[in-house]
Amino acid sequence: MALANKEPMVMAGAQFMKEAERWGAKIVPVDSEPSAIFQCVQGLNPDPRAAAPLKTIRRVILTASGGAFSKYTGDLSEVTPEMALKHPTWKMGKKITVDCATLMNKGFELIEIMNLFGLKREQVEIVIHPQSIFHSGVEFSDGSVLAQMGVPDMKLPIQYGMTYPERAGRVVEPLDLVKAGTLEFRAPDFSRFPCLALAREAAQKGGGLPAVLNAADEIAVEAFLNKRIKFTDIARVVERTMAAYAPSGGLPGFQEVVEIDAWARAKAQEACS
Q: Which of 99, 130, 131, 205 is the most buried (most CB within 10 A)?
């Protein structure tokens, strides 16, 4: 199954992976960075249904463009939806573009990748890379790093998701490293972009909290786009909703995830008022 959206893996990724294993199914991520990681680990295990052996993966280098405010030095509480929707690299829908601006999208990918590849949170390092050329990489136990690189164009991961395990003819322009020039890498600012810290918390605690994170963010982003709350209030709404959640313990089933989602949406609406 070629998976084009990350929400199922955020809300109930562990459950989905268990179902995939039960049915002998393979989930192929289509999103750019998860696809890059998926491509890097191919051929490392003779079982086509299995990911790379966990013992060989030391860490995953998950890159983020940084969104509209990667180099913005002004007051983030004063930015407008129009400003947040001006992504420097990718042309996407409004919701995911705002998530890129808050770095919540990278937090979602952190959870997605942990579930897809059975990794611990500390095995995923998030790095800001504005050029979006180094799509992501994997460091192995011997210190070697394999990276998937290319021009920032979704045609490539979409095509690979449809033709896996084969590679078809080129549908994007070839990567010209000389033209690309200097590639930048830096650590994210968790204090300036608290949504990323909230996603890391949800990733660490697990259970139903990632579903709460996802639902609260959807409500908060919608409120921001409708100019009901400020950009910086997105994190506030998500944090309040997460704090109000009382986990029942254990891994929730699919029906319980749906109920958690509904609860979190209602609670986030209250926090927006």
A: 99
